[in-house]
Design goal:
single chain, about 250 residues, mainly alpha, 13 helices, about 80% helix
């Protein structure tokens, strides 16, 4: 398990740097990481089956305002190797993935808190006109620090197995779990508020509410919502082009 432990640790660190953004968001999914885990452990078919089962949990995952409700990347990187090592069924792998995804949310909240230091550091360098240090404070320093708190989680979890994950969850005080639970309920609302703020245009806000309540009350799948969204974008673009041509 040492090989897959090192791989998952490095893979988790790289994927959570968001280098390439859209690319890392795609290849960090449990089904994709299962390809490499299966090859390393020599259980390719079993890894794909378990990865697909875990992936189902996170197909509709949306990080509104960059606030994750669960860490799909960490869930797959720990649940899949442990399930393969212990010959667990995909259903049992899912039960491991759920609490691991919560641990990932804790790490992400820790990241946002600790990275404030680098924001203020960049502000000080900007005041001095030191452009190089501003870039390093924004990119390099947070990335290097992330290695020390991202890498150990999947590394030790896979090295010592499912018992390590269970024991870690038991160590966390109940008051802390309750606190994060309350924060987890607030953060999505904050995320939607930030999304509305980013949209900016008052003319587009009705489309935001139409899309949200359409999905909420009709319970249409993510693919169906995406198709409706693309169709709406095409119609708006055509209407704006026609309006501009007639002006």
């Amino acid at each position: 398990m040492l090989g897959v432990s090192i791989f998952t640790g490095i893979y988790y660190w790289i994927m959570k740097t968001d280098v390439g953004y859209g690319i890392t968001h795609a290849i960090r999914q449990p089904l994709f990481s299962a390809l490499f885990i299966g090859l390393i452990m020599g259980k390719f078919t079993e890894a794909i089956i378990i990865g697909a089962a875990v992936q189902i949990l996170y197909i509709g995952l949306v990080a509104a305002g960059s606030n994750l409700p669960a860490d799909d990347c960490l869930a797959g990187l720990i649940a899949i190797p442990i399930a393969l090592q212990s010959n667990l069924t995909p259903a049992v792998a899912i039960t491991i993935a759920v609490p691991v995804g919560v641990i990932g949310v804790f790490l992400d909240q820790f990241r946002k808190t600790i990275n404030i230091v680098f924001v203020h550091m960049a502000d000080r360098f900007a005041a001095k006109g030191n452009q190089k240090q501003v870039v390093l404070s924004a990119l390099l320093y947070p990335t290097l620090l992330a290695l020390f708190y991202r890498f150990p989680v999947p590394f030790f979890a896979n090295l010592y197995g499912a018992n390590a994950v269970t024991a870690f969850m038991k160590i966390i005080p109940q008051w802390l779990i309750n606190g994060f639970g309350i924060m987890g309920g607030i953060l999505p609302a904050l995320g939607f508020a930030l999304t509305m703020f980013v949209i900016g245009s008052k003319q587009l806000l009705p489309w935001f509410f139409i899309g949200f309540f359409l999905v909420e009350y009709s319970k249409i799948p993510v693919m169906g919502a995406a198709i409706f969204g693309i169709a709406a974008i095409i119609l708006i673009s055509m209407w704006q082009q026609k309006k501009g041509a007639n002006a």
